[in-house]
Amino acid sequence: HVDLPIGSLREAALWQQLFVELGHVRAEDILSGSGLVRLYRSICSLDNHVPHLTSPAEISSAALAGDPVAEEVLSLFCIWLGRVAGNGVLTLGARGGVYIVGGVIPRFSAFFQSSGFAKSLRSKGCMSHYLEGVPVWLVTAEYPGLEGAGVALQQMLEPADAA
């Protein structure tokens, strides 16, 4: 439930739109499927466009097809995700890596890989050097939590000398 980090005047204007709707603007309010729709509506409102896309899938598809408003939504989504992830690395000292998990990013993984995510993750002013070399993995397994729990259970049940 951390705050959504602002890094430009455009983002500040969008944050103001979101604040009017939400009050406290959490990263989760944007960095989710429903957040794509919320961000799309905010951009349309700010730029006086009539919103015509209503779902995360429609927004993703439109962005990949070249719709400029939808492209901005995905671009800002990736940038904000990078900032939030970079803040997490700094806060926790998590230099071993960042795992991107969930159903949103795999829908536009190629876009994500060429987005501003990596730059915004590492753009931390005087601490930017700390984030150099921090790996990022995109988890595409359908049920990573269940698979991980299954592996942990299997390891617990195997005899110690089997390894």
From TrEMBL:
Entries under InterPro entries matching the protein: ATPase_NBD, Bacterial_glucokinase, Glucokinase
Keywords, ordered alphabetically: Kinase, Transferase
Record-level GO cellular component terms: cytosol
Gene3D superfamilies: 3.40.367.20
Pfam family membership, one: Glucokinase
Gene Ontology terms: biological process: glycolytic process
Molecular function (Gene Ontology), one example: ATP binding
Family recorded in the similarity comment: Belongs to the bacterial glucokinase family.
Name listed for the protein in its UniProt record: Glucokinase
Source organism of this protein record: Azotobacter beijerinckii
